[in-house]
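Hi all, posting the design record for the shared folder.

TITLE: backbone redesign
STEP: 1 of 1
STRUCTURE INPUT:
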């Protein structure tokens, strides 16, 4: 959700302010944030939880996130933005749009893997009551 809110602020408000803010919010937070967050969460439970820990789990989380979010979801969002929404700069900055999505998905997957599948990450989550 934090990543999607960042995308909304940077791409949807700061870089490309034109368009309906409510639609941008619903797309980034509801569809991408909740929908794809749930998808990655389910895949992590099915493929990583109870099987991997530490560096291997971080690597698996990074690969899953990069493939599902950075490639699959990002290509879908790119097509939708380029052809229908015109709200996040897909047509204007195709390369930046696509590479930013891949990079952010990989970083988010690595951070998620570290927080969920390491002792040091678990201590941080515990401090926040998660």
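Okay, here is what came back for every position:
SEQUENCE:
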């Amino acid at each position: 959700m934090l990543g999607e809110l960042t995308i909304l602020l940077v791409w949807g408000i700061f870089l490309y302010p034109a368009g309906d803010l409510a639609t941008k919010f619903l797309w980034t937070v509801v569809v991408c944030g909740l929908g794809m967050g749930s998808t990655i969460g389910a895949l992590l439970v099915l493929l990583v939880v109870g099987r991997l820990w530490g560096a291997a789990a971080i690597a698996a989380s990074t690969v899953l996130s990069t493939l599902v979010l950075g490639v699959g979801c990002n290509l879908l969002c790119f097509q939708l933005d380029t052809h229908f929404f015109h709200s996040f700069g897909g047509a204007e900055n195709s390369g930046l749009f696509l590479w930013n999505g891949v990079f952010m998905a990989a970083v988010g997957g690595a951070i998620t893997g570290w927080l969920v599948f390491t002792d040091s990450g678990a201590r941080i989550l515990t401090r926040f009551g998660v």
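COMMENT: DSSP finds five helices and no strands in the chain.
Let me know if anyone wants the other runs.
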